[in-house]
Structures are given as C-alpha cells and as structure tokens.
Amino acid sequence: MSQNIVDEVTFFLHSFLLGAVISFVYDGFIILRRLIKHNLLLISLEDMIFWIACAIGVFYMLYEENNGILRWFAVFGATLGMIAYKKSISSLLVRTVTVMVERVMRVLLTVLRFLLRPVCFVGRKVRGALGISSRKGKKVGRCLKNKLTGRLKLLKITLSRH
C-alpha cells in the first residue's frame, strides 16, 4: 500500500474521531443543561462559543494534517463520527452521567443540611429575637415620631403668635 493512501486513511480516521469528540463535548453541554436550567439566551451563547471552538479545532486539524486544504471526505468523516457517536452511546452516557451527578448532589446536600443544622437553629433563634425587638422598635419609633410632630406643631403655633 502506498504512503499516500495510508496518509489519506489516517486523515479520514482523524476526522472521524474529531466528529466523535465534538459530539462528546456537546453532550457535556447537554448534561449541564439538564442539571442547571438555562434560558434561551444562555443556550444560544453556549452554542455560539461551542461552534466557534469547533471551527477552530477543525481548522487546526486541516492545517496540521492537510496543509489547510479542505477535503470533502474529511467533512464526511467528521459527520460519520458524529452520527456514529450519537447513535451508539450518546443517549446512554447523557442519562447515566445526569442521574449520577443528581444523586451525588442530593447526598452532598443532605450531608450539608445535617452539618448546618446547629447554625440554622441558632439563626432561627436570633431571627426570632430580632423580630420581637424589631416590632417593639417600630412601636417606640412611631411613638417618638408622634411626640416630635406634636412638639413641632406646638413650636410653629408659638412662633406664629409672636
């Protein structure tokens, strides 16, 4: 087999692997979106940054392996790599990783709640004490305001008579 054919097959396999890697990285975004709800603007921004990074990656591969010349079989190989990854393990991987991360987060939150229970208890007591003093403070403040308003009116009346 000639060296040119070996180089072309290697280039095709690299483009196939690049397509699979691109799909794998995008599955990371899908997992993140399942764990943390995103609005449409954030999803659009993520997608734009992702595809710009993919374009840079594809250009780098073409530049390194084929002197920057676009070969359609490389595009075909990347497309085949994406399709093969999506049809084989993508959905299983996304589901499994999402469930595992959700379970780990649930356990961590349970442990954190248990560890912070004394802090929450003290916080509730302090909040209750502050609430009582806040209500009393409001009453005192209203009383002082009324007294000062009355004294101010009396002063105005006195000054207007003189």
Structure commentary:
7% of the residues are buried. The protein is elongated. It has helices at 3-35, 40-66, 72-115, 117-161. The protein is built from four helices and no strands. By secondary structure, it is mostly helical. It has a domain at 3-115. The model has no long low-confidence stretch (mean pLDDT 86).
Question: Could you tell me the number of beta strands?
Answer: 0
Order of helices and strands: HHHH
- The number of distinct helices, counting runs of at least 4 residues, comes to 4
Q: How much of the polypeptide forms β-strand, as a percent range? A: under 5%
Classify the secondary structure makeup into a structural class. mainly alpha
| Major sheet attributes | none
Low-confidence stretches: none
Q: Can you give the helix content as a percent range?
A: over 70%
Computed CA radius of gyration, to the nearest angstrom: 34 Å
Distance N to C terminus? 119 Å
Could you say which overall geometry the principal axes of the C-alpha atoms support? elongated
User: What is the residue-averaged pLDDT?
Assistant: 86
Quick structural overview:
The chain is mostly helical.
SSE blueprint and pairings:
Layout: H1 3-35, H2 40-66, H3 72-115, H4 117-161
Helix pairs in contact: 1-2, 1-3
Any key phrases for this structure?
162 residues; 4 helices; mainly alpha
